[in-house]
Design goal:
It is a single chain. The protein is elongated. The chain has one domain. With 65 residues, it is mainly alpha-helical. The termini are close together. The protein has 2 helices and no strands.
């Protein structure tokens, strides 16, 4: 991929996404899920961090630099 992110940037994105998922799960374990707004926040954050982590991992696996 000529114009895509570098391997270093993909690794950083993956690390930040995994850290965000870990922080979200830690918050859920310590604070619990409070109502429908909490469910919405967890779904949106989980989709964002999970999608970014999955995309970054997929790009790292198929990148041939």
């Amino acid at each position: 991929m000529k114009y895509g992110p570098t391997r270093g940037e993909l690794k950083l994105r993956l690390a930040i996404s995994l850290l965000g998922m870990g922080m979200m799960f830690f918050a859920l374990l310590t604070r619990g899920l409070g109502g429908i707004a909490g469910v919405e926040i967890v779904l949106i954050a989980g989709t964002f961090f999970g999608g970014t982590a999955g995309w970054s991992a997929w790009q790292l696996l198929r990148k041939d630099d």
